[in-house]
Amino acid sequence: MSRWLTCTTAWTSAETFSVIDTIRQIRFVWKPLVFFLCLAPAALVVGDAFEITGRLGANPIEEIQDRFGYWGLRFVLIALSVTPLRQISGRNWLLRFRRMLGLFAFFYILMHFLTWLILDQSLLMSAIKEDIFERPFITIGFSAFLILIAMAATSTIGMRRRLGKRWQQLHYGVYAVGVLGVWHYWWQVKLDVRDPFIYAAIIVVLLGYRIRVRYKKTRQV
Amino acid sequence: MLIKKPANIRPSEISSKENYLNRRKFIQGGAIAGGSMLTGQALAAMLPTDRRAKLADVQMSDLSTGEDANSFEDISTYNNYYEFGTQKDDPYLRAQNFEPHPWTIEVTGHAEKTGIFHLEDFVKPHALEERIYRMRCVEAWSMVIPWVGIPLADIINHFKPMSNAKFVRFETLNDKTRMPGQRYRSLRWPYREGLTIAEATNPLVILAVGIYGEVLPNQNGAPIRLVVPWKYGFKGIKGIVKMSFVEKQPGTSWEIALPNEYGFYANVNPDVDHPRWSQARERRIGGDLFAAKQPTLMFNGYGEQVAHLYDGLDLRRNF
Hints:
A: mainly alpha, B: alpha+beta, 18% helix, 21% strand, globular
C-alpha cells in the first residue's frame, strides 16, 4: 500500500480503497497487457516479413498494406464500441482504454498510409498526387487519415483542457472516420463486397446506437 | 459446406529456378533427340493425368520473352479464379481436390466440325509449345509465366469455322459441387469470355495445358485455359468446357458484371485507366519490398504483333 492512500481518513474506507485498487490494476496490469495485445498484428507483419511466424505471400506489399488497413479499420470500430459497451454494461472502467484504442487505430492507419506511400508508390510524387486527387476511394481514405491525425495530435490531457468544448467537437470526427473508412474499403473491392458489408453493418449498429440514445434524450426534454 | 484442408505444397517440392532451367535444357535436349527419331506423328500432344506430371515433346518458341519467369510458387499461389473463391489464395487452397479428368470440350456454332470431344482428342492433333509470356492483371500487377500450350489458331483451323463465325466464345465448367466459389454469385456463372476471330487466330494466343513444363495446376485453370498475353488476365478463361463459333459479339463475364469498368476488348493500355485505379504502372510480382512499380506497356509490350488488329478502333471507348 502506498503512502498517499493513508493520508486522509476518507480514503481508508473499504469502498474507496477498492476503486483506487481497480484504477491501479487497470493502469499497471490491464493497460500494458492490452497494449501488447494491440501490437500483435504489427508484430505478426514483421514476423511474416522475415518468414519467422508465417509468410506474406506472392505480393507482400499488398499484403502488408491490406493488413494494416484492416487493423486500422478494426481499431476504429473497437474504439467506437467502448461507449455503447460502457453504457449498456455500466462498466465505466472501459473508458480508460478508449484513448489507447483510438491511438492504435491511428497507428495502424499511419502504417497503412506509409506502406502505400513508400512501398507501393516508392515516394513517386506525381503518382501520389494523382492517386489522392483523382481516385475517389483514395481521396476518401486520405480524408479519414487527416481527421485521425488531428485527433491523435490533440489526444493528450493538456490539449483536451486547452481546446475545451472544441475538443469534443473535433473528436466527434471519429464518426466520419468510421464511415469514410468503410466506404474506402468498400470502393476498392473489385466485386465481392461480403467483407466490407460486415464492416458497414457494424458501423451502422455503432452509429445507430448513438442516434437512438440522442433521440431518447431529446424526447425526455 | 465441407472444404477439405488441402495438402500444402512444401517449400521443398517447389522447384528452384536452377532446377527448372536445367529441366528445360533437358527437355530441349530430349526434344531434339526425340525429333530425329520420330516423323510426322511426333506432334501428337499427350496430357498425363497426374498432378505436376512432366509434359513430353514441348517445343520452344520464338515468341517467348527473355525476361525471368516468376517462381512456380508465385504463379500457383496468387490467383484470381473466382470459381474457387475471391481471395488471392483461395484457388490454391480450395482447388486441390478438384479433379480435371476426364474432361470434355463441346465445340458448337458456325464450324464444319462440331461436337463433344475428349480433352485428349481435342489436343492430340497439335504440338505443345512453351510460351514464356508477360501476364498483366487488370489489378495492376504482373508476372512472367512459362506456359505450355497449343496455338489457338491451330485448334480453330482444325474445326474449320465458316465465314459467318466472327467471334469465338468460351465457357468455364459450371458445377458448384466441384467449384465451391460458384456457390456465391460473385459473377454470373458460368464464366464466359470471347475474342474476335482475328484476335483468336493471332499466333500469340494459346490454349495452355501446363506451366514450367508440367501439367497445369488446378488453381491455374486445369486442364485447359486461354492465354491472350496482350489483354488483361481476366480474358484468360480457365477450365474451358465449351468453345462456340458465333456471329455476334458475345457477352463476357466481367463486362456483364461491371460494364463501366471492364470491356470486351480489355487490351492492356497504360493510357486508359480503370475508373478506380491507374493502369499506367504495374507491380511485378517477385520483386523485393522496395522495388518500384514498372511502367505498363501498350498491349503489354506485344504491340508489334497485335496493334494492327485495332486499326481505326477507338481504344478509349472500346476498353
